[in-house]
Amino acid sequence: MARFVMLALVAALALPAMGCYHNRIVTSPDYNPSKVTPDAEELRIHILGLFPVNSPVNLEATCPNGAGVLESRMLFDIRLATFSQTRVYCNTVAADAGADSADTLAALKN
């Protein structure tokens, strides 16, 4: 019985310490928001929430036309190891940053 009480106490203390979050970062205004299937999906593991076990996602290789949306979601956090999921949604057309900057410069000169 004492063992059960100790396990219940540990679980009661651990559950409030856990949290979850979902970040969605839109990096391109031209991104199609109706796209629901990610182009890359990866499970991420961090030790003590700070030190990643796996390498970062290579966005240049994954999305040659640029990333439209980056998503990060915490799946499980036990303080020793944090498990999260990263999803990358690529643009279908390359963004033309040169056109915007040329228009902006011309507007500033006038």
UniProtKB/TrEMBL annotation:
Q: Which residues form the signal peptide?
A: 1-19
Record carries keyword Signal: yes
Per UniProt, the keywords (alphabetical) are: Signal
Q: What is this protein called?
A: Lipoprotein
**Species for this entry:** Lujinxingia sediminis
| Upper lineage | Bacteria, Deltaproteobacteria, Bradymonadales, Lujinxingiaceae, Lujinxingia
